[in-house]
Amino acid sequence: MFNVDAIRREFPLLQREVHGKPLVYLDNAATTQKPQCVIDSLTNYYTSMNSNVHRGAHCLADEATRAYETARGQVARFINAARECEIIWTSGTTEGINIIARGIADRLAPRHNVVVSAMEHHANLVPWQQACHRSGAELRIAPINDAGDIDMTALAELIDSNTAILSVAHISNALGTINPVHKIGEMLKSVNPSALFMIDGAQGIAHGDVDVQALGCDFYAFSGHKVFGPTGVGVLWGRESVLADWPVWQTGGEMISSVTYQSAEWNILPSRLEAGTPNIAGAIALGTAINWLSQQDLEGLRAHEQTLIRYADERAAQVSGLRQIGTAEKRIGVLSFVLSQGHAADVGFLLDRQGIAIRTGNHCAEPLMERFGLSGSARASFSIYNTVDEIDLLFTGIEKAKMMLE
Ligand code: PMP
Questions:
Q1: Are 316 and 389 found together in one domain?
Q2: Which atom of ligand 1 is nearest to the CA of 120?
Q3: Are residues 95 and 237 in the same domain?
Q4: Which ligand 1 atom lies nearest to the CA of residue 93?
Q5: C or N: which end of the chain has fewer Cβ atoms within 10 Å?
Q6: So what's the pLDDT on residue 406?
Q7: Dist. CA 248–CA 281, nearest whole Å
Q8: Which CATH number covers residue 167?
Q9: Are residues 155 and 55 in the same domain?
Q10: GO molecular-function annotation terms (predicted)?
Q11: Hey, whose CA ends up nearest to atom 4 of ligand 1?
């Protein structure tokens, strides 16, 4: 049974105060807080097991390697990867997307095109811009409507036999839109079976049921810190048949099978794409986070998240001067808004004084904000440990901020 109070008790940081007020943490799209088991996992690693993986001839190295590879398996099962070697440890979503964008840049010619949507985070836009600039390929942007949904008819018109890759967010960090990724993948592959399909899962991993095989994608990238794990570690999942000969992006230790003074041969997956000493503690703690999440009542948890967003929508509709950005039917976790009474940055400041943490600005999606005629918005983003009471506190805070700004 899903019990939000019990969940909250597992997150020590949620117990603290800010500016003398109980913390109301509504910046979960930026990063989630960590349950005690994840914090313990990091500490335990350094207090009892610290060692380098895959190389030592001693007990500690064996234990560290086992824990590190166990975490890979935990991630593989969580996202239903066909094989563990398809899980590549990265530093986060940004690195995962860059590995694919840099790799594909070598294969792009001026006749090719790359398709993204108008709602992408800079991490799923700029790497493709760079790949296109370098190769002369065309970057195509699928428009969105005023609610914040991708215009599927327009998207269909952008895909053709020269589309090399299409990359889209599973869930938008700025609008909360849940994109119909499965349908997008089907559309892409029906027009061009050899085109690759990448999903930016930075937000999807914490809110969606991610089954990479069922989604029909070739790559899925996410960050540990958005799914209750530590910062500095993330995952690039790729279909083995595609990743097996993917251009190596960093060279050095671990990623080689043999080396002479003049040349080297590459290792097999996953080492091939994992040069150097990895973030061992981070990977193990991410495994702990994912294990912890898998043990929760996932159905209850998703229902709770829907309750929060629907309640926030209802409350937002009653606030005079509040314009909501992103009202897609299929949406989760994000209430993005501006107030006619004042600038988003001032709203964020005034809420912070009341202990309420939100994010303001362009949310690393500057072109998207421009699409809505804005330089930025205030964004409250919810996680599984937030409550309806906290949403009430948010709206009390917004009313107070309005009074001070008027
Ligand atoms: N894509 C989306 C949709 C995101 O929300 C984020 C993080 N805000 C990223 C990519 C980049 O993630 P990271 O900074 O952890 O690499």
A1: yes
A2: 3
A3: yes
A4: 16
A5: N
A6: 85
A7: 24
A8: 3.40.640.10
A9: yes
A10: cysteine desulfurase activity; pyridoxal phosphate binding
A11: 202
Of all protein residues, the one whose alpha carbon is nearest to atom 2 of ligand 1 is 202
Atom of ligand 1 at shortest range from CA of 169: 3
- Specify the pLDDT at position 184: 98
Nearest CA to ligand 1 atom 5: 173
* pLDDT at residue 1 in the model: 86
- pLDDT tens per residue, range 60-87: 999 999 999 999 999 999 999 999 999 9
Residue 76 is predicted with a pLDDT of: 98
The reply to whether ligand 1 has any atom less than 6 angstroms from the CB of 34 is no
Q: Is the CB of 177 under 6 A from ligand 1?
A: no
Give 202 Cα–ligand 1 centroid separation in angstroms: 5
The type of residue at 105 is: A
Residue 142 CA to ligand 1 center (angstroms) comes to 19
Question: Which is it for strands 356-357 and 24-25: parallel, antiparallel or unpaired?
Answer: parallel
Q: Residue 365 and residue 362: Cα distance in Å, rounded? A: 6
Please state, in angstroms and rounded to a whole number, the distance separating the CA atoms of residues 256 and 242: 19
User: Could you tell which of 27, 173, 175, 210 is best to mutate to test the pocket of ligand 1, judged by most ligand atoms within 8 Å of the CB?
Assistant: 173
Distances (CA, A) of 384 to 25, 29, 206, 305: 11, 12, 9, 6
Q: Using one digit for the tens of pLDDT, what is the confidence trace for 311-328?
A: 999 999 999 999 999 999
Based on the residue annotation, tell me whether 59 is a catalytic residue of this protein: no
Looking at the domain assignment, is residue 35 inside a domain? no
The residue from 247, 264, 294 where one domain ends is: 294
Q: Can you give the pLDDT at residue 26? A: 98
Q: For residue 107, is it left (φ>0), alpha (ψ between -120 and 50) or beta?
A: alpha
This prediction's pTM: 0.98
How far, in Å, from the CA of 26 to the mean position of ligand 1? 16
Shared domain for 262 and 122, answered yes or no, is yes
Predicted local distance difference test score (pLDDT) of residue 208: 76
The domain of 164 spans 40-294
Q: Of 242, 269, 294, which residue is a domain's last? A: 294
The alpha carbon of 200 and the centre of ligand 1 are apart by a number of angstroms equal to 8
How far apart, in whole angstroms, are the C-alpha atoms of residue 109 and residue 403? Answer: 56
Q: Which residue stretches of the chain have pLDDT < 70?
A: none
CA-nearest residue for atom 12, ligand 1, is 93
For residue 128, how far is its CA from the centre of ligand 1 (angstroms)?
15
Residue 84 and residue 74: Cα distance in Å, rounded?
A: 9
ipTM of the complex: 0.99
CA distance readout (Å), 133 to 113, 139, 155 = 11, 9, 22
Per the structure, the count of domains in the chain is 2
For position 392, which CATH number holds?
3.90.1150.10
Q: Are residues 374 and 251 in the same domain?
A: no
- Considering the domain architecture, whether residues 52 and 131 belong to the same structural domain is answered as yes
> Which ligand 1 atom lies nearest to the CA of residue 170?
3
